[in-house]
Amino acid sequence: MRVWCFIKNVLITLFWFLFEGVMLHFVYVNAAAFHPLEFLQNLESWAFYGFGYAMGQHFHIKYVVIYGLSTSLSSFENVMVPHLPRCIGRIHLYSDMWKYFDAGLYKFLVKHIYIPIVKLTSLKLLASMATFGFVYIWHGTATYILIWCILNYIGIVLEQTCSPLLSVKKSEGIKFFLDWPRRMRCFFGAVLLAVSAISNFYFFGGKNIGDLFFRRLFADNLPNTIILLFILYCGAQVSTELCPVHARKCDNNPIKMKY
């Protein structure tokens, strides 16, 4: 049984490795940071946004392949390891991105930086700032890394601040009105998701690529912006629906391959 699980996990990892190789023959996401910006500037809005989504999926699959090999060997040796990165297409909150994309890094940051500072000072904002300060130094003290960390810190703070304001007890009102807090959370999450995507584009492609996406988001025409926010809102609804199921599966079987 253990050998079969090992072979299955390796085959899954090999599939995503080959899939990524084929994808890079058609969508040159790695070359975006080294190509003249006119290439991206001349793309119409939906090709431009699609290219950004492809950048995110490329980054996700790369981590699935790298972590897939190590977790396959670890699971074969009965070593408990964090679950593989969750697909970015099913994450819309900053907190979930940090919690479920790189679970090992998240547990390290929480255990060795965030919790000790909270116990010492009781200041969660300070603990979060120190945590992202470590992330900034760990990933390299470049300008685009600093922008990425600042946007993530602001997003986490806004998310944690606004979440209680959008919650409601199940005993209040009828079901129609009970659904509105979720709709409001998803709408708020859609806005945060747009900013989160831009922050990740800084991380994926550097400052010039991030600046280009930032300008396009706020300079695009109103109909495109409304459609984009509606698509992100739908993604937030799907993410909200799948989040409890996926979290349960990861907790019950942390070494099982989930994408």
From TrEMBL:
Its main location: membrane. GO terms for molecular function: palmitoyltransferase activity. It is found in: Membrane. Pfam families: MBOAT. Keywords: Membrane, Transmembrane, Transmembrane helix. GO terms for cellular component: endoplasmic reticulum; membrane. The chain crosses the membrane at residues 12-34, 145-166, 186-205, 225-247. Belongs to the membrane-bound acyltransferase family. HHAT subfamily. This is Uncharacterized protein. It comes from Acanthoscelides obtectus (Bean weevil).
